Amino acid sequence: MCNLYRMTKNKNEVAAWFDAVNDLGGANTADEVFPGYPGAVVADGRLMQMSWGFPLVLKGKSGQPLKPKPVNNARTDKLDSAFWRASFEQRRCLIPVTAWAEAEGPSGGKTRSWLSRPDAELFAVAGIWRDTDEWGKCYSMVMTDACGVAAQCHTRMPILLQRADHGHWTGGTPDEAHALCRPWEGELALDRTPEPWSGRGQMGLL
């Protein structure tokens, strides 16, 4: 699962790397992105800003709607559910990432373990997006079974895409996109740090 990731390249570098039109304009995104906060996304050939996480409206004990929670991870085996289906079939995107973090350690003392691709300073994670009444354009990462060193940290990890598969993910049929929903076959680097974990009220996986 992923509730924190880094994207440390500047927007011009990212747009050039993805061969995308830079629509970020004067918008700035943080180097570290948490659920419910803005991040950079490549959709329809354009680099733009969206909020990380689809809004899920919960109800209180008396039935009143509560503040929406961001659902920032979509499980591959749930993509056919009503919550995700239309976005997966019609609105797939690329999420530029330089590393993602998993929380490890005892409750109350968790630290950040960073995972990345040693062969690439910048890479694409599979995403889906939609327009929402609550937060405008929002995106979610698509998660698959963890593999390699990532499996030491969590049972799930983001779908990492080879550069040659970017177009198949964003423009292919749903069946072609489903075929890319598999564990990463390349190397991964794991950096366990003493940095305290901060989840900033994450929602997580659905």
Dominant shape:
globular
Q: How far apart, in Å, are the first and last alpha carbons?
A: 10 Å
Number of strands: 16
Number of domains: 1
Mean pLDDT: 93
Q: Structural class, judged by helices and strands? A: mainly beta
Main beta sheet: 11 strands, mixed
Explain briefly what this protein structure is:
It contains 4 helices and 16 strands. It is mainly beta and 206 residues long.
Descriptors:
single chain; 206 residues; mainly beta; hypothetical protein yedk fold; eleven-stranded mixed beta sheet; five-stranded antiparallel beta sheet; 16 strands; 12% helix
Question: What would you say this structure looks like, in words?
Answer:
This protein is mainly beta. The protein has four helices and 16 strands. The strands form two sheets. Strands 2, 4, 5, 6, 7, 8, 11, 12, 13, 14 and 16 form an eleven-stranded mixed sheet that branches. The radius of gyration is 16 Å and the shape is globular. 35% of the residues are buried. The model has no long low-confidence stretch (mean pLDDT 93).
Detail the topology: elements first, then pairings.
Elements (H helix, E strand, L loop, with lengths): L4 E2 L4 H7 L3 E2 L9 E2 L4 E6 L2 E7 L1 E3 L12 E7 L9 H6 L1 E6 L1 E6 L6 E6 L6 E10 L3 E10 L10 E3 L1 E2 L4 H6 L2 H6 L9 E8 L7 E2 L1
Parallel strand pairs: 2-5, 5-12, 7-12, 7-16
Antiparallel strand pairs: 1-3, 1-9, 4-5, 6-7, 8-11, 9-10, 10-15, 11-12, 11-14, 12-13
